Amino acid sequence: MKKRIKIYDTTLRDGTQAEDISLLADDKVRIARKLDDFGIHYIEGGWPGSNPKDMNFFKKIRNVRLKNTRVTAFGSTRRFDNPAAEDANLQAILESGAPVATIFGKSWDFHVTNALNIGLDDNLEVIEDTLKYLKGRLTEVIYDAEHFFDGFKHNPEYAIATLQAAVRGGADCLVLCDTNGGTLPLELGEIIDQVWQALGREVELGIHVHNDSDVAVANSLVAVSHGVTQVQGTINGFGERCGNANLISIIPNLQLKMGYKVMPRENLQKLVFLSRYVDEIANRQHNNRQPFVGISAFAHKGGIHVSAVQKDPLTYEHISPDWVGNRRRVLVSDLSGRSNILYKAQEYNLDVGDDSQTRKILERIKELEDRGFQFEGAEASFELLVKKTMGTYKPFFTLMGSRVIVEKLRRSRAPISEATVMVRVNKHVEHTAAIGDGPVDALDKALRKALEKFYPVLKKVKLTDYKVRILSSDKGTKAVTRVLIESQDDEGNKWGTVGVSQNIIEASWQALVDSVEYMLLQAGINNHEV
Fold first, then answer.
1. Of 161, 377, 392, 489, whose Cβ has the fewest other Cβ atoms within 10 Å?
2. Which domains does the chain have, with CATH numbers?
């Protein structure tokens, strides 16, 4: 029977060392709640001796009732010239109130002599004494052997001696760290085997690797296959330089592919939510191509692929997407075949009729994509396209005219953008104007202002993303521009729309109108006579 694998999350500490990640104490508490709900075994909250923000987190987390996880405080071994009882770093760990401490120490002789500037035996004494001091005061102490794999390659006897010192100090788990991220899977596995031979199987080993060689996930899985039972990493691979091992990939691989018990199977269905939630709190754009959780992870574009997936998803999917809370997506593009159209029509409960209708829709899509349209990220525009091509769509309004003015009065002042829109709904004409942060924002506000009188539901819609892609840069200012817009209602539902034109305002208008009309369709609004 395989041993249970414990997951140790260091997003709140090591993850925040990434150059574009910064979390407030309240942000860290929010993430900690989600990690606990997901079933993470350890959450490393920070280094309480290094900054007030981390200590503030430990104060706040004391008032949170956690169900599955143990909070750990991170820190270094004591300074050589400080007794453990007088070391400020160790005292801060105890004051944090965390039941578990994770202490890192030097395993590479090069660091001992050149960074700490102490003798090799002095370092062994510091490791043992630090852990022994904390072990007598906390329920659990974990030892992170910093730079262990580099240290082992340069001086294996000394690297092992540092682990033995940690064992004498009472460490509950020895975590082998590939701090520089330069170790490859085959050599990592061989080194772990030699550690077992030196220490015996009575000790517990963990793994902590960085992604500088793009093998952090692979190294973590190899480590487990060689007997390691604690895996450290971060959500979405956050971390310094190239990041840490990505727990979002490690966890489903361990449980679904390697057969290890990590957490209740139903918890894996929260994987997508957890990944996107942490990105949202960290103000990061979610990686669409991230394995398991990206929106492209189970997306199918080629017609042959879609046809095969309809017969049996295992033909082009390594797992069922719902196991991790994701979903299958079929993309519509100029590579599409009849299978793509039928699949998408079923997804939107659209009756596309006979083969002639399907071919008509497919030809229309290919014609538009030849002009630069793209429906892979604009599924709302696709649904509207199908309805229009089949003649089942009735417009909600007619544009009678629009104008956008960008005026700059002084060099030192920001330009002013104003848009006016005239629309007809039923027999009523509405003429409105609005000022925005830019021409597209002004146009969006003017359009909504004109329509909200007739369709109040539009007050619930907001634009959440706006992307511009130049499709023919060799034509300079005459280049064709594609605009992709993402919209969201107050219930969190999102949809994408697209527009293409040589005029960026016209392309934006097309995508804006699709966004509005799709919302009205979803809300079940009856089309007015236009």
1. 392
2. 6-263 (3.20.20.70), 299-373 (no CATH), 398-522 (3.30.160.270)
